[in-house]
Design brief:
Bound molecules: zinc ion
Number of helices: 0
Structural class: mainly beta
Radius of gyration: 12 Å
Order of helices and strands: EEEEE
Shape: globular
Distance between the termini: 21 Å
Number of domains: 1
Strand content: 25-35%
Helix content: under 10%
Number of strands: 5
């Protein structure tokens, strides 16, 4: 997925069970994805956000 802040960076999210760190991705009844835990870029734009029901929620 592309970083939602607009910096153009591609975020690689590891959702395979063997990966660490990894994220759980679930879809609700409308097919909208929810990620857990939050995504935190440790360099670059340092974005920290949740993806819930297909929408980005920024952390302060
Ligand atoms: Zn960014």
């Amino acid at each position: 997925m592309k970083c939602p802040c607009g910096c153009g960076r591609t975020i690689e999210l590891l959702v395979i069970p063997e990966a660490s760190p990894r994220w759980n991705i679930t879809s609700d009844s409308a097919g909208r994805p929810t990620l857990h835990p939050s995504v935190h870029m440790k360099d670059g734009c340092k974005s920290h956000f949740w993806l819930r029901h297909g929408r980005v929620q920024w952390c302060k």
